[in-house]
């Protein structure tokens, strides 16, 4: 036998020499859920180990992550019903607790990378990412709301704006508004191929942001998020986001869409981000808690697989856990 692939697996040192994919904390983004108030640290029931933090405790959490070498964070607000309305006005109120907390984080940790979320759903009485009118999600009237939200976030100091709403033309609307307001250095991490997935459940529990069960409100997000059956359609979205000025292209979810990550990585030159979403993390936690999987092995293998598919950046609820376990593979 002339060729024996096992020779390159003989020792840990040789395996290290031939390892093709690497992962370290510099590739990871830790999501942080914010709640209004003080002294709040409430665990998300469907995502054990993930908490909604009041601002002062979120700062402590971010400090702990920074000490572990994690520098990038994506923030999401759990907004009280009293602040929700049809047009998500609270989302661009400069005094809202989300923007105030972002300002404080950037004041305390100017070296971190802070990523926002742009979509109406956490602030919307309807629980949709866009404006609901006559039982439909109206695209073009949503764009100015998203643009206002993005400018308010840039003013608060976010480094990257993260449109997750999937309205057509949002990246251009946001880029133009940011530039007019003087935020030419604020980047856009576009949720490019975001699928209408069943794996966002724990996230919607965390923020109470699911589409509301009222008459006249569509029950799902299928008219704007992509059909899980489609791969080629992601190329259309990626071309548009690139042309409209995005700085990162994101695929979401990650694990069930590794083919899409790989496709965009090969076809586009922008960095690729993958969102390892709440339900994908919850599956692994549930199996581990049952003793069916070894979290210590399955978690790093999962993150490495997303990197191998082509993700430059991984947003994952396991970022801190990975950093705590040494933070490099
Ligand atoms: C809001 C948004 C969602 C997620 C990120 N931003 C939920 C949704 O689109 O319904 C999901 C993230 C996760 O499940 O971890 N538009």
Describe this structure in words.
The protein is built from eleven helices and twelve strands. By secondary structure, it is α/β, with parallel strands linked by helices. α2 (55-67) runs parallel beside α3 (97-108) and α4 (143-156) crosses α5 (170-180). It is globular, with a radius of gyration of 20 Å. Ligand PBG binds next to α6.
> Which whole number gives the mean pLDDT?
96
Evaluate the radius of gyration: 20 Å
Which fold does the CATH topology refer to? TIM Barrel
The CATH class assignment is Alpha Beta
Outline the low-pLDDT stretches. none
Total count of domains: 1
Biggest sheet statistics: 10 strands, mixed
In brief:
The protein contains eleven helices and twelve strands.
Top keywords for this entry?
329 residues; alpha/beta; 11 helices; 12 strands; 36% helix; globular; binds ligand PBG
Blueprint of the fold:
Layout: H1 12-18, E1 28-35, E2 41-43, E3 51-53, H2 55-67, E4 72-78, H3 97-108, E5 113-115, E6 131-133, E7 136-138, H4 143-156, E8 160-161, H5 170-180, E9 187-194, H6 201-207, H7 233-243, E10 248-252, H8 258-267, E11 272-276, H9 278-289, H10 295-309, E12 313-316, H11 319-324
Parallel strand pairs: 1-3, 1-4, 1-12, 4-5, 8-9, 9-10, 10-11, 11-12
Antiparallel strand pairs: 2-3, 6-7
Helix pairs in contact: 2-3, 4-5
């Amino acid at each position: 036998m002339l060729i024996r692939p096992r020779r390159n697996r003989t020792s840990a040192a040789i395996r290290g020499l031939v390892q093709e994919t690497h992962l370290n904390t510099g590739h990871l983004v830790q999501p942080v859920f914010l709640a209004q108030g003080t002294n709040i640290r409430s665990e998300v029931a469907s995502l054990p180990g993930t908490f909604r933090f009041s601002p002062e405790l979120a700062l402590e959490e971010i400090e702990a992550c920074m000490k572990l070498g994690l520098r990038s964070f994506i923030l999401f607000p759990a907004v009280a019903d009293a602040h929700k309305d049809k047009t998500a006005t609270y989302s661009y109120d400069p005094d809202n607790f989300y923007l105030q907390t972002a300002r404080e984080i950037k004041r305390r940790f100017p070296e971190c990378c802070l990523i926002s979320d742009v979509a109406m759903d956490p602030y919307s009485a309807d629980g949709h990412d866009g404006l609901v009118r006559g039982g439909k999600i109206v695209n073009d009237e949503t764009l100015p709301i998203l643009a206002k939200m993005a400018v308010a976030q840039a003013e608060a100091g976010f480094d990257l704006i993260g449109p997750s709403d999937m309205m057509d033309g949002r990246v251009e609307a946001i880029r133009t508004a940011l530039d007019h307001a003087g935020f030419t250095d604020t980047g856009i991490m576009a949720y490019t191929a975001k699928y209408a997935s069943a794996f966002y459940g724990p996230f919607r529990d965390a923020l109470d942001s699911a589409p509301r069960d009222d008459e006249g409100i569509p029950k799902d997000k299928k008219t704007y998020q992509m059909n899980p059956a489609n791969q080629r359609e992601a190329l259309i979205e990626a071309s548009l986001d690139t042309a409209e000025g995005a700085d990162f292209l994101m695929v979401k979810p990650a694990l069930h869409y590794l083919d899409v990550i790989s496709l965009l990585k090969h076809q586009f030159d922008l960095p690729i981000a993958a969102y390892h979403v709440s339900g994908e993390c919850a599956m692994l936690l549930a199996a581990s808690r049952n003793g069916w999987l070894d979290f210590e092995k399955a978690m790093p293998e999962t993150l490495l697989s997303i990197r191998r598919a082509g993700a430059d950046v991984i947003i994952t609820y396991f970022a801190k856990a990975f950093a705590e376990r040494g933070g490099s593979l």
